[in-house]
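**User:** My hope is that you can spare some time for a protein that puzzles me. I have put the entry right below:
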Amino acid sequence: MLQTQREPRRPGDVAGRHQVTRVRHEVRRRRLSVASVERLTPRMQRIVFTSPDLRDFASAAPDDHVKLFFPVEGGGPDCMRDYTPRMFDTLTGSLTIDFALHEAGPATAWAISAKVGDGLDIGGPRGSTVVPDDFDWYLLVGDETGLPAMARRVEELRPDASVSTFAVVERAEERQGFRAEARLRPYWILREGQPLDDATLLRFALDDFVLPPGDGFVWIAAEAHTARTLRSYMMDTRGHPKAWIKASGYWSRGAAAAHETFEDG
């Protein structure tokens, strides 16, 4: 059953607060080396990279993305894919990338076979869209590809913030634990062979969710159609202000697409 809530305060009513900013970074290509490989869940591979080139690496937002350049068998131009910097440390020159193994292709094949000492080039991030940590609550929604950014956001939020996460995954063993100082309520939606698509599964789960009081920011990252559908649902059905929603398509079904953020009405 769809839960109702009071009319949210509009962005124009909050002078000087909740200002989303955009930061540009110097773009250059860096050569990294694999330091460790860990299978977090059956469909999520964590790889830690190191390089002296990471000493000045910058990533100001949890959902930043870098381009990874994967070699193509038989030569030719590298295959480029976008990934979230899950964690990084400029003092040690390390960068952690979590790979969602959701489809066959050069990126998944490389991640599965990666071993310590392997090299890989990255570029970026080109810029960051920084959502301030001054909202009363946060709602984070996504599929496996959104989990790295979702987890990073949860871990970086201040202790008195309220955050709820809705993540759709294949089955129970794909669930991850988030380290959070914020007040976290995690919800896991399992496909488990159901005929419903991700947008429908997530929408049904969100129907029963009462938005907390105060000002909130909604973040969505999933397959492009799913992200668009849920963005419209949050604006049109739940009445949440468009300025306080960010929705991105992290992949497109049947296509090797880059990140796409939806900003129109």
Remarks:
- The domain at 131-262 is CATH 3.40.50.80 (Rossmann fold).
- Helices lie at 106-113, 147-156, 198-207, 224-237.
- The two ends are 26 Å apart (CA to CA).
